[in-house]
Every structure is written in structure tokens, then in C-alpha cells.
Amino acid sequence: ALPLIFMNRYTLKSSLTQLVIKKLLPASLLGLMTAFTVVVVRSPEFENGIEVMDRNGKVVGVSQKAGKKAVKETAWSRAVLFGTTFFLPSVLTYFVERAKVVKTPRALASVRMLMITSVLAGMLPVSLSMFPQCGEIKRADLEPEILSSTEETELFYNRGI
Fold first, then answer.
1. Under a CB-based contact definition with an 8 Å cutoff, are residues 145 and 61 in contact?
2. CA-to-CA distance for 46 and 23, rounded, in angstroms?
3. Rounded distance between C-alpha atoms, residue 75 and residue 79, angstroms
4. Domains in the chain: how many in total?
5. What phi-psi label fits residue 100: left (phi over 0), alpha (psi between -120 and 50 degrees) or beta?
6. Mean pLDDT per segment of 10 residues, for the chain of length 161 residues?
7. What is the pLDDT of residue 11?
8. Element (H, E) at 1
9. What are phi and psi of 139, to 5 degrees?
């Protein structure tokens, strides 16, 4: 809502400004807010850490650094998922409107919903596969307590969804 308030207050009415503020900026903000929400909801993983395992699945310790890496990867994948799902249909709808392919607002709304559903269905597997579910972290990147408890060079953690 804030970009729209600025647009109306300062009478920024050019078509390019309206495209950016009404269509492109909300997608970017949605992606950022989604990433921020993941970070806030999973903040205990920053403070407490997550379990780190060796190749055999034996828990070696709890690492805050692995927790930070897992949360960062999940936040990126969510930002890409929701940012793209909001961004692409907006841009495509803009071109459909300009080409006057669809005659009525009701048909345009239907086309927009179809595009949103299609992009979401396509982006969901992409987003979930951006980073592996079982993440890898090098031994040297972990806390000293974990370094002393194992000789493995690479350890693993469950990234979460």
C-alpha cells in the first residue's frame, strides 16, 4: 500500500511508473517479506542451532552455523517461489491488457488466475529443489566443539521445508 500512497501523493501517473509501482514492486516486496517471515519463524535455529550428522546418520552435535545456513537457504527458496509467482503473472497480464487479447475484466481475471496457478505449479518444484533437503557443510565451517568430536571432512544437516 505504501508505494501506492506515494504514487498518488506525488501524482506519479506515467504508465511506466504505474507498471513498476503496481505490478513489479509488490512482487519484489512479497519475495522479501516471505524471506523475512521464514527467518523470523525459524529464528530458534539461529539461537539454538540444528543437529549435524556424519555420513552414517549419527548426530555429531548441534551447530548454529548449520542452522543459519539452513534458514538462509530456505528463505531464498521461498522468496524465489512467491516473488516469481507474483511477478510473472503481473508482467504477463500487463502484456495481455496492452495487446487487447481479452475483452472483458472478468475474462482478464480468469486469465490472470490461470497464469498464477500455472506459474505456482511450475515454480513449486523449482523452489523445493533449489537446495538439497539434506544439506552439506564443511567441518572447518563448524564450531570448535563439533570439530573436536569428529574427523569427518563433510557433515550433513536437515534443511527443513
1. yes
2. 34
3. 6
4. 1
5. left
6. 69 72 77 92 90 90 92 92 86 85 89 91 91 90 86 88 77
7. 67
8. none
9. -60, -40
